[in-house]
Design brief:
This protein is of the alpha/beta class. Helix content is 45%, strand content 8%. The longest helix has 32 residues.
């Protein structure tokens, strides 16, 4: 059913700031973990003075290995029992390799279990002073350049003929629009930023980028546009080019610092700039070419994208779900913050590195554990749709013509869509795993018990993903809270529906039934609304000249003799 409703938007919800702060470390951790071999992951755990316990859930559709069990555990870092493939596992990355990070031609993506080990090892190198934060950012970019390159392609792909850079350079404040204030780059750690951006903007003695007069258009059209243009040119050419990789990493840091300023966000989201940059025409998800959306549909939801879900593809590699769930929060709205969110997605890895190497977080990463949980493939989808047809029959109230039209429309869509793209989303799998461990707490093996113990020690379970949740995952969390009183801290929802399969474990039949009934109601209403619109459109269409003539003078088999003028 979610495949039928793909792209429909059912409201948004943002996480409360306090709750988001609890989730923030795992959101950033998920961002860095997901930039290797494009896994679809969710991360959770606890941060304590003694260290960090991390559980990483990997969507089964990202794994080529089939497992009979609903999930498989793979200890990676800091646990007593080593993975089964110890003999085949590569050694963690060395400090020297981090310092000399480069993108090798045709290099294969790093497997997720190896990338996890390497990432925690690099945190230790930064803490010990063996490598700098700048070195780590360059190494992170070397692991994620395919995704970054793919996201930069959206400068053209998502904005059409007038690409984003062209739009940035052509913007001018409206005649009645007063823009004042400044972007502050006076902090000591921003000295290099001030030096770089002087080429395009006016900086006063206090190192403020002035936005008054033509300052705002120079900041946007000169500074931001030029950074994007240079990144778009440099990143694809960084393979084997150490200097280009270093420049790309530095440019992303500069862009991140500028975007972090409140005045920059205000400029992109609260002025005419947002409307000017909105992609046109919007690419909506439609289910019938002649039917305008009855509900609100997601616009350019692949912006970063957690989700990235039309995801990014580069060298045969899918992005981290830019099509339904990516680093940028795919809120699915038509708001003026679309471009700002896209720009944030480009700097997500840089921002995550800054946060996790900060003095208040980094010390905890020295003594850590990490376990990978690989979910099984989605449950097979039923091909019996009679329950949907029965619901349409009930909803149409005995109107046989309306029922037949709605059923025909729905069956045609089911045939064309099927269960395409349905999979267990990683965050849904993590919530289900938590529920499963609570239900079977007395019959767990030793390794699984370690995961259950880690979950037990956490009050509200934070779940870090690379963008906001889809509608189904967020609704699942709400229903699980009602059913089990277990609270999950999620980064909010963009409210958009994407192909989705229920987790293969942990979730009660009552919860799944409620979720199914809600989706069934949406599908039935959608199908009826679509055929009603089509019927109304047909009735209101102007008749052709031939139709009018034929109706005024219909043809007859034999003309009356009066018409015989021979």
């Amino acid at each position: 059913m979610t495949s039928l409703l793909e792209g429909q938007k059912r409201g948004t919800c943002s996480s409360h700031q306090r709750r988001y702060e609890e989730d923030k470390p795992f959101v950033h951790l998920a961002t860095l973990l997901s930039n290797s071999s494009s896994p679809i992951i969710a991360a959770t755990g606890s941060i304590k003075p003694s260290g960090v316990e991390t559980i990483i859930v990997l969507s089964g559709s990202s794994s080529t290995v089939q497992h009979p069990a609903p999930f498989v555990l793979r200890p990676i870092v800091g646990l007593d029992r080593a993975p089964e493939d110890t003999a085949q596992r590569l050694q963690p990355v060395t400090a020297g390799e981090v310092l000399k990070a480069e993108i090798k031609l045709r290099s294969a993506p790093i497997p997720i279990h190896q990338h996890v080990r390497d990432l925690f090892e690099v945190f230790k190198y930064v803490h010990n002073g063996d490598v700098s934060k700048v070195d780590m950012k360059k190494w992170v970019l070397s692991r994620g350049y395919r995704k970054l390159s793919s996201r930069l392609n959206k400068i053209h792909a998502s904005w059409g003929k007038l690409d984003l850079i062209t739009r940035l350079r052509s913007w001018r404040p409206q005649a009645n629009e007063v823009i004042t204030g400044f972007v502050d780059v006076s902090a000591p750690q921003h000295a290099g930023v001030a030096q770089v951006v002087r080429t395009w903007v006016v900086i006063d003695d206090e190192k403020h980028i002035l936005l008054s007069g033509d300052g705002a258009s120079r900041f946007v059209g000169g500074c931001i546009a030029s950074i994007l243009e240079r990144l778009r040119e440099i990143v694809p050419k960084s393979i084997g080019e150490d200097r280009k990789l270093a420049f790309a990493s530095e440019a992303l840091s500069v862009l991140q610092i500028l975007l972090d300023q409140e005045r920059t966000k205000w400029l992109f989201t609260q002025t005419s700039l947002g409307e000017h940059l909105r992609p046109d025409p919007p690419r909506y998800v439609r289910h019938h070419p002649s039917v305008p959306s009855v509900v609100q549909f997601a616009q350019h939801d692949d912006v970063g994208a957690e989700g990235d879900e039309g995801g990014d593809q580069d060298e045969g590699e899918d992005d981290d779900e830019d099509e339904d769930e990516d680093t940028v929060e795919a809120s699915g709205n038509d708001g003026e913050d679309f471009t700002y969110r896209y720009l944030l997605s480009l700097t997500a890895w840089s921002a995550a590195t800054d946060y996790l190497t900060s003095k208040r977080v980094l010390p905890h990463l020295q003594d850590c554990t990490a376990t990978l949980v690989i979910l099984s493939e989605p449950l097979s989808q039923s091909t019996n749709h009679q329950f949907l047809l029965n619901a349409i029959d009930k909803a149409t109230g005995g109107n046989q013509a309306r029922r037949r039209s709605a059923e025909g429309f729905l069956l045609s869509k089911l045939t064309s869509v099927g269960a395409a793209g349905c999979r267990v989303h990683a965050e849904a799998g993590l919530m289900a795993l938590d529920a499963h461990l609570r239900l079977h707490s007395t019959e767990l093996t030793a390794d699984v018990q370690k995961i259950a113990t880690a979950f037990d020690h956490i009050g509200s379970l934070p779940i870090g993903i690379t963008k906001k949740c889809c509608w189904a995952c967020f609704r699942l969390a709400e229903l699980l809270l009602e059913d089990t009183q277990r609270d999950f801290i999620l980064p909010g929802t963009h409210g958009v529906i994407y192909p989705w399969s229920p987790p293969p474990l942990g979730v009660s039949s009552q919860v799944l039934s409620r979720l199914r009934d809600e989706l069934m109601g949406m599908v039935v209403r959608w199908a009826i609304e679509q055929v009603d619109y089509i019927d109304a459109s047909r009735q209101s269409l102007p008749r052709s000249e031939d139709e009018v003539i034929n109706e005024a003078f219909p043809p007859r088999d034999v003309l009356p003799e009066e018409w015989d003028f021979t």
